[in-house]
Amino acid sequence: EADIYQTPRYLVIGTGKKITLECSQTMGHDKMYWYQQDPGMELHLIHYSYGVNSTEKGDLSSESTVSRIRTEHFPLTLESARPSHTSQYLCASRGQSMNTEAFFGQGTRLTVV
Amino acid sequence: GQQVMQIPQYQHVQEGEDFTTYCNSSTTLSNIQWYKQRPGGHPVFLIQLVKSGEVKKQKRLTFQFGEAKKNSSLHITATQTTDVGTYFCAGPIGSARQLTFGSGTQLTVLP
Asked: Hey, are the CB atoms on A99 and B86 less than 8 Å from each other?
């Protein structure tokens, strides 16, 4: 069982609210990722980090921000939620080598009303 | 840009039929990984292929890595309802060797 955790699992929130999705891993992985995914569809990379104080935007334009102050923690923040943000958000981590697998959290299913 | 393409996007099969999904990269890959995501779940690592022409088997699943290391396939023999889900390939792409996922193949198995 992978040691990567996301909270909350489900969230319904009103338009304009600020929210933070939490992701933590206890595997000591340097690389961490945030993906946005509609059910069963393509994984869209929105942010990634290769270590503490390192964050980059992914391929999908996003109105979210991330921080990486500690190796184990990679929170995603939406300053002002909109209905278009309704989706599932998946956090993942992997080790340093190119040959290591990615471990995914169970995801946060976000609904903005 | 460099990417990983996967076909088909959807596949419906009758239980007992075979299923294949194909993955193609615009660039040579050092390795290819395969993941399965059950409905409502998260992607879970299945296997990694590293060598040119490599073939690996996991029970009814057969994974192949092309000779040129630019394509890969996953074949499921005699599908079962437990095979339902989305299958993703992924490879390290670009100067940063970012793990890039294919668009996935959503498999439905009809009983």
From this structure: no
What tokens does B26 get? Answer: 């615009």
Tell me which residue in B33, B50, B106 faces A101 most closely, judged by beta carbons. B33
Task: Tell which residue, B82, B88, B84, B111, has the closest CA to residue B101.
Answer: B88
| Of B39, B40, B99, Cβ closest to residue A94 | B99
How far apart (Å, rounded) are the C-alpha atoms in residues A48 and B96? Answer: 12
pLDDT score for B92? 87
Q: Are A9 and A108 in contact (CB under 8 A)?
A: yes
- pLDDT at residue B65 is higher than 70: yes
pLDDT at B85: 97
Query: Collapsing DSSP states into helix, strand and coil, what is residue A17?
Result: coil
Cα B80-B36-B4 angle, rounded to 5 deg: 125
Look up residue A31 and give its two tokens.
């690389």
CA B106 centroid distance within chain = 11
- Substitution target in A44, A50, A104 with the highest count of B β-carbons within 10 Å is A104
HSE-CB for A105 with a 13 A CA cutoff: 32
Does B42 sit within 8 Å of A43, measured CB to CB?
A: no
Decide if pLDDT at B107 tops 70: yes
List the structure tokens of B2: 């460099």
